[in-house]
Amino acid sequence: NDSAELKALDLAHHLPAQADYALLEQLGGSRIITHAEGCVITDIDGKSLLDGMAGLWCVNVGYGRSELAEAAYKQMLELPYYNTFFKTATAPAVRLAAKIAEKMVLSNPDLKHVFFNSSGSEANDTVFRLVRHYWTLKGEPDRQVFISRRNAYHGSTVAGASLGGMTFMHAQGGLPIPGIEHVRQPYLFGEGFGQDPDAFADACVQDIEDRILSVGPDKVAAFIGEPVQGAGGVVIPPQSYWPKVEALCRKYGILLICDEVICGFGRLGQWFGHQHYGVKPDIIAMAKGLSSGYLPISAVGVSSHIVEVLKTGGDFVHGYTYSGHPAACAVALANIGIIEREGLIERTREVTGPYLATALTRLDGHPLVGEARSIGLLGAVEIVSEKGTNLRFKGAEGHAGPVVRDICIKNGLMVRGIRDTIVMCPPLIITEAEIDRIVDILEASLNEAEPVLRA
Ligand code: PLP
Predict the structure, then answer these.
(1) Nearest C-alpha neighbor of 332 from the set 317, 322, 318
(2) Which residues line ligand 1 (CB under 6 A)?
(3) What's the complex ipTM?
(4) Gene3D superfamilies, from UniProt (predicted)?
C-alpha cells in the first residue's frame, strides 16, 4: 500500500529536519501526515491526533481553510511571481507591509517598515546584517556585537543558529560565528527555582548589564530575545523582566530586537508578544503565524529611525528571490483577515488562554509534575523525579521528556518534549472541549509514564 511505499521512499531518499536518521531507520520511516482539519491531523495509516503543536508553532488559524487556498490560487493565476529587486514590488507585498505596520504601531508608532523573507531563520539573518550595516552607516562601526540568551532559538541558518543559544547546535558546524554573546535566560523553574520572580528577573538583567560592560558598551549593537522562549522550553519570563531589559538597552543606546516568530500573530493574546510585556522594540522578526504556515513567508519590522540611517547608505545589498513572494503575501493577508474577523487575538487573551491556564492546574497535584505553566495558548509541563523539586529522572535532563511525549502521541496528542518539558502550542481556534482533551490525554499519559520512569 501507499503507506509502506512512502515510508520506504522516505528512508531511501528523504532527510527530514532535525532528525536522528538511525532512529528513523529503526522506526521504519517517518509518520506520513496526509490530511488535517481544524485542530486534528491524520496520518496515512488513518491515525488521528489532536495537534497540540499547531504544526510547528504556526498553524494559528487551524487546518482546512479553503479561503487561504483560494487566495493563493487567485494570486498565482494573476501573477505567480515577481521580485522586489528591480525597483519593483507587487500589490500583495505592499498591502501586507501596510497591514503588518498597522499592527506594529499599536505598540511602537515608529515601527512601520517591513522587509520580507521566506522563513524565520532568514528573517534573523536579515536582522543580523541590517543591524551591523546600520551601526556602520551611523558612524559607530565598532558596534557589532549581539547579545542573546542561552537556549534561545533564532533559526537554523549560520547567523540564526549563532544568534540562538543552543550549544548542541553550535557543536555542529563550528558555531557561533564571532560577535555573539549569550547570557542567562529568565527560566525561573530551571535556574531560579524557589526564588522570588522579580529578584530572579533582576539577576538575569544584571547578567546582561555585566556582559555589556565586559564587552564594552560602545561595542554592543543589539539585544535579541523571544518574548517567551519557545523551542527553549516555553520559558515565560517574570512580568518585570522585559521592561527592565528595555531600560537597559536605552541606557546604553543598544537596539532592542524581539524575535516574534512564535509569539507573533496572537499566541500570547496580542498581535505581538512584546505587546503583552509593554515594551517597544526597534526591530522585530516574524514568520509562522503570519501565514499560519499555509505558505512560507517571514518579515522583519524595522523602525523609521533605522530606515532613515539606511537611506544614507545607497543599496542595502540584501534580499531573497522570494522576498515579498506575491502568493505568500496574498495568503498572509487572507490569514490576518481571518484572525481579525474571528477575533482570535481577543479570544486567546480572554477565553481560551485563561481556560488553558485553569485546565492545566488539574495537573498540579500529579507526582511527576514540577510545574504546569502557560501564557495565552502557549503551555509547558515540567516533569520531575521528586515532587516539590526541580530534580530530573536519572539525575540528568532529557530522559523523561521523550518518554512522556511518545506516550502522548500514542494516546492521540501531538506535543513536543524539550528536554523534560512537554510543550504545547495549539491552533488559536481550539475549543474549550479540545483543551480539556489535551489535559486529559496529558494526565493519562503521565500516569502511564510514571511506572516506566520509576522502573
Ligand atoms: N525564531 C524563533 C523564535 C523560532 O521559534 C523559529 C522556529 O521555530 C525560528 C526563528 C526559525 O524559523 P524557521 O524555522 O521558519 O526558519
Answers:
(1) 322
(2) 57, 119-121, 124, 153-155, 226, 230-231, 259, 261-262, 287
(3) 0.99
(4) Aspartate Aminotransferase, domain 1, Type I PLP-dependent aspartate aminotransferase-like (Major domain)
